[in-house]
Amino acid sequence: MLDFRLSAKQQEYREFAHQIALEEMRPISLECDRTEQIPESFFWQMQKRFRGGVEGQARQFRQPGERQDALLAMLANEEMAWGDAALATAMPGPGLAAPPILAQGSPEQQEKFLRIYRDGQLHWGALALTEPGIGSDVAGMATTARLEGEEWVIDGHKHYITNGARADLIITFATIDKSMGRAGIRPFVVPKGTPGLVIGRIEAKMGLRASQTTELIFENCRIPKDHLLAGREAGAKGGFKAAMGTLDATRPMVGALAVGICRAAYEGAQAWYQHELPAGYAPYQRREIAEKLEELRQEIQMARLLVWRAAWMADQRISNSKEASMCKAYAGQLVMKVTAEAVRLSSPGEMTETKQFIHKWFRDAKVFDIFEGTAQIQRLVIARRMFPKVSIP
Ligand SMILES: Cc1cc2nc3c(=O)[nH]c(=O)nc-3n(C[C@H](O)[C@H](O)[C@H](O)COP(=O)(O)OP(=O)(O)OC[C@H]3O[C@@H](n4cnc5c(N)ncnc54)[C@H](O)[C@@H]3O)c2cc1C
Fold it and tell me: Where in this chain does the record put each Acyl-CoA oxidase/dehydrogenase middle domain (predicted)?
């Protein structure tokens, strides 16, 4: 049976998340963007309202007997980004560290590494893949890990790591043998405060300014042997591939965040049109604006359906690499279009708060086309699956 409706429980969770976005995020959004700071009271408030994190809270809205963690996460992410995408990416919790630990870690590792996130205190997680010399193509990764007795020794340099300075655990990718290319890359768990882990520059950014993006330097950074997360067996080659598989879970979340900003910008442009449109607009000009808004509304709905499909497939344990990339590529580019149109449409007249928000969303949008794989890379992922016999670099 095909059914596009949300269940009553799902709708309830969506409204729960929307209320938080409205009451906790929107009121501080512009100030956090201006100062590039988030008050600690916001984190505690999130901790209080999302008991057990976004995922923990979602469990209370789950239909018994049904898998719907991904779908509930999508609903929350869209609402959070509607509130403020920078604050959404800075929420306390394991964040991007969780999927690799859950997917690759042994039961003992899962318990050991994720335990702290249940202690009621503020904790974050991060994932460090990107280096100054590598982003999309990780084959040339320069960060190395070598085994010395009972310890892995990590040396290298990562940058643009979301929540890197706050994270209690950083899933760090390093090569154990450069000659193996991608097959030599492994994920390691590096705890905060490990000697040799140096927190570098916090980047000043155009968008998502309140979300911290950090440089990390690893200098003779020693972690216990059992902090290797995947590819533990001798001679294993699949550590990196397996860890990258978690992107199938995280890309729809990024797509959902992009849809949330799209919706915010669309509603902002609509509010401007209804309440702030300067006098003197001819009827044909009004029609043009109304038609453009309707075009955007349709495209936002398309993006949301792509996101929901990828999430639904994840919940049903159906392989969704192609669909996860499709929704990320589409929503990541649409958010740039919608926010740019909102800026264009609302440009006449004096600067109002509505416009300040629209301008912020325009700046926030760009990164959704970059992180978790650019749109070009998503299309390559899709093309490889559509045309498996054609060699695509
Ligand atoms: C705000 C922010 C937060 C981030 N958070 C994290 C994080 O938490 N962890 C992390 O590890 N990284 C993070 N990143 C890094 C991000 O994932 C990378 O910037 C991204 O993967 C692109 O890599 P790159 O910047 O090296 O660009 P490159 O890979 O050098 O790409 C540059 C351009 O070339 C294009 N391109 C590259 N290869 C191809 C190809 N084969 N075919 C066609 N076009 C191609 C790309 O699409 C892009 O347009 C973050 C980045 C930002 C800006």
Answer: 126-221
